[in-house]
């Protein structure tokens, strides 16, 4: 199974320190309406490490039910324990996940052979597609292209979400891995890299920004697939200030603040993450106020609440 298009790395809404299931359901339905190809639940953006097993199960069930088969549901199941990764992956499969997103084991920094064996055991255990998630900045270890090439030969391994930040490595992956595995999907794990990655032959993005602007990210990815380079570049440039705002502090702090400002379900982040600093929050508000996809509810509300202009958001006029 190949993966192509725009996939949203969902935030997990919390309210009064509890899981906001109604908010999560509303967010999924908004993503479906925005034309997104699929959603990722329990990823980094979803603050999965802070959630209990019970909360994770509830979140998976809610997303699967809310998606109602209209979009692909991908569940993040990776951890630094191979045993736990397999257990969580089997649970996600049982609960109706269409695919798994599995990050490089973090903190313990395994060797390249250890990384391969981690994915090898997982591939022997499940029966749904696996997307490898390479994020050396968070995990402390890069999946080298030669290692990914071996992993791509395993059953059920269908693609990679690349957040290496190294365009040369992406080009190597597209050249080497896809040469031998044409159906292997290469997705950007960084919104800002979507344009160059797809220009080199990638298939799409797992996006944070699409939590707020699903239709805009869909439009960008669609334009790239159709070869409408100028349209794609214009969309990228319009999105760029917000994409940079999403990097002002650790993900998902900025995207949750942005969604709260737009009166969309997000709520607080969980410790050890904290609310955005007032200085950066003001920067975020100013950027949203200038975005072609958002308008301020009123000048009186400046700095407190921004309202999504649904017509602009959905139609991208």
From TrEMBL:
SMART domains: DHDPS. GO terms for molecular function: 4-hydroxy-tetrahydrodipicolinate synthase activity. It comes from the Bacteria. The keyword Protease does not apply. Pfam families: DHDPS. It is an enzyme of class 4 (lyase). The active site is at residues 133, 161. The record marks 44, 107 as: Part of a proton relay during catalysis. Pyruvate binds at residues 45, 206. Its EC number is 4.3.3.7. Transmembrane segments: none annotated. InterPro entries: Aldolase_TIM (IPR013785), DapA (IPR005263), DapA-like (IPR002220), Schiff_base-form_aldolases_CS (IPR020624). Keywords: Amino-acid biosynthesis, Cytoplasm, Diaminopimelate biosynthesis, Lyase, Lysine biosynthesis, Schiff base. Pathway: Amino-acid biosynthesis; L-lysine biosynthesis via DAP pathway; (S)-tetrahydrodipicolinate from L-aspartate: step 3/4. It catalyses: L-aspartate 4-semialdehyde + pyruvate = (2S,4S)-4-hydroxy-2,3,4,5-tetrahydrodipicolinate + H2O + H(+). It is found in: Cytoplasm. Catalyzes the condensation of (S)-aspartate-beta-semialdehyde [(S)-ASA] and pyruvate to 4-hydroxy-tetrahydrodipicolinate (HTPA). Homotetramer; dimer of dimers. PANTHER family: 4-HYDROXY-2-OXOGLUTARATE ALDOLASE, MITOCHONDRIAL (PTHR12128:SF66), DIHYDRODIPICOLINATE SYNTHASE (PTHR12128). Belongs to the DapA family. This is 4-hydroxy-tetrahydrodipicolinate synthase. The gene is dapA.
